[in-house]
């Protein structure tokens, strides 16, 4: 298969700002004309890649009755939601989408690697074909999209719902960004809600946006009052009331493209990617080298991985262009899979503790435990511990170059960390918000604080990390005052720089520790 690289920078747009399975999501304006200016949804720099599909033989006359050269046309054939044109709001959204062709083209390029797989999954489960359009509403098919409601990925899962549907989230991996895994989770979730709402897909979609329990409460309330309990008559958040018409507007666009002067994307109904299950943890750079694909292609197709390797707890799956997957599998037949991992090693010194080693190497204690099969924190002098590899020990220049590129690509990924902050004397929500670079409104929403004036010293509040910020375009340096709980790793992530650079700029040795109040120089 011919691989064609398009070096243009991928512009990512957040269409839905939805919070899958969450509570009160940030409302959006339901009138299309007022939301015409899209906002960026990712801090990661991703190159667009198009894969020319293989030329398959023409199907025989005995093949299935419905054969489509275009996967989007095939999808329309399985549409099953209520008629979109019956609702004025849906028609407005169809007009809005058709009136923004450049925006739609970017979405279709992002969707191209995944749409055949998603369509297959939908058909196998006998679900409405419109569900394949849901990531357009949710994230504009951006696996790196992050909403203010803390939803992440193409299907916009919040952390708790993602975990409930099997999406692991740890130091190595976040399944919400993994399009392959999150598609399975999203379709399972939607199917479950369709059963819950007796086959009413509009209620299921409303539940996907604002939470099934909220929708179920409104259904019960309307029934008890003798009112209609369909989607159009429920009292739901403004975002949810606009959410379903957005999807119906897309169905109008795809069912009746001529009416909206719209042309369906020309995406052949053929697979262009394949998932290879390696069976154990593997170094992504080594996988890319064996599969003979550029590291940015591997990163684009495997957005769930936060680090240089797959997670030790799985999944061990790597998505590759079709021919690259076949090449990789053929090479794996003559190779022990354990050769696909590279580790560093550290010898425990007198006085070392697991937490000290963790701080020194910017590796979580939990990762040290899992990497070395430790049940607790007890270690002894002379013991050898495995560490996630350090680029200083890489001797292969091609490997080192690819590893550095992967690290740079991953440096902008979303932190899913949750922090518990104990309020100090004199602290206000605005002070705490500035420290963590979040909004006061988010702090109030996360902690159900209606009156900020009632915040008391000693209380604990929850803070969710926001996406790492892009490095400023301006040059120069800043002074950062170390806060309690800071580490070189957390500071490097905050400013999108490397830990080794922080050490170099501040003359810090490998064993140097930082302390609250210390001033750190950061070159921008």
Give the topology.
Blueprint: E1 3-9, E2 47-51, H1 71-77, H2 88-98, H3 101-124, H4 134-139, H5 159-164, H6 179-196, H7 201-210, H8 212-224, H9 238-255, E3 273-277, H10 284-291, H11 295-301, E4 317-321, H12 322-332, E5 343-347, H13 354-361, H14 365-371, E6 384-388, H15 397-410, E7 418-422, H16 429-436, H17 440-447, E8 460-464, E9 477-481, H18 488-495, H19 499-505, E10 519-523
Antiparallel strand pairs: 1-2, 3-4, 5-6, 7-8, 9-10
Helix pairs in contact: 2-9, 3-6, 6-7, 7-8, 7-9
Task: Tell me about this structure.
- The protein is α+β, with helices and mostly antiparallel strands and 524 residues long.
- The chain folds into three domains: 3-260, Lysozyme; 343-408, Roll (Membrane-bound Lytic Murein Transglycosylase D, Chain A); 418-523, LysM domain (Membrane-bound Lytic Murein Transglycosylase D, Chain A, Roll), CATH 3.10.350.
- Helix content is 38%, strand content 10%.
- The protein has helices at residues 71-77, 88-98, 101-124, 134-139, 159-164, 179-196, 201-210, 212-224, 238-255, 284-291, 295-301, 322-332, 354-361, 365-371, 397-410, 429-436, 440-447, 488-495, 499-505; strands spanning 3-9, 47-51, 273-277, 317-321, 343-347, 384-388, 418-422, 460-464, 477-481, 519-523.
- The strands form five sheets. It has a two-stranded antiparallel ribbon with strand order 1-2.
- The protein is globular, with a radius of gyration of 25 Å.
